[in-house]
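Note to self: keep these together.
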Amino acid sequence: MPDEKRSRRWVRVRTLLTIALAVVVVGLMVHWVRTVKWAEVLTALQNYPVSTLAAAAAIAALSHLLYSTYDLIGRHQTGHPLRTRQVLGVAFVSYAFNLNLGSLVGGFAMRYQLYSRLGLSTPVITQVLGLSLLTNWLGYAFVAGTAFALSPPELPAAWELGSAGLHGLGGALVLLVLGYLGLCFAARRREWTIRGHRLVLPTGAVAFWQLGVSAGNWALIAGVVYVLMQQHAAYASVLCVLLIAAIAGVITHVPAGLGVIEAVFIALLSRQVPQADLVAALLAYRAIYYLAPLGIAVALLFGLEARGATDTDRHTGRRSIGNSSYTR
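Structure:
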């Protein structure tokens, strides 16, 4: 009974914190929509150098490619026989839909649909998806922890966490990452079954692989925004604000973090970057990192579905790749 009470109390606290953050973010969104001078934003967009847009697009493409390799970690762990281009294609399409329509559509439903068409069984897909999520947030924890611990941004006075709290949170995140790495290297038991799902702890080498690709990806995403801001703000500042905005978007459950990312950036960087230039950079970021990949993903989606059955029959010789045959 005491454990149940503590659990209920924690759920209530977490719910209240989520609601409080959502209220703050919505307030910021309303404020920035009312105060932005949209004519100046349009002028800033029209004056973007082609070289700046091209550089941002190149970094965005590299980020999407790096994210797509997350699912190769899942292939390594499960041993499924899909080819690299198939895995990269599924991961890219899923990521693009995830960014624009939310994790339930992109991160989950899209992966299950596409991998099922390619012959993977549900238990294998679940393992691949779980490893992808773990990889993404492992890199986030390391990058955010390091950034917040070493150089936390100055938060508005109304934000209760404060820069000191952010500093402590950064240290905790780094310790969490180190704990995971230590577990992967030292744990004797490496496999568990929880509610019918088989969980296999990666090796230390795979854990470093996860950390490297994910940390690199978060750094690249910040690089896209930094380039579009045309050096009005330091890269470290842009990185910290992006990391805060990412969590705000997840907590508020707004698809694509629409308005949430912009509100957080304006609240934290408006003193360093002229507001019109800041909003223009964020709109360009959405077009380059979110919408353009989505257009490509829609086109790829039809090709992946059309070729899925043919490729599976030719290269695996079976329609369904079962968990028992192709997992380690």
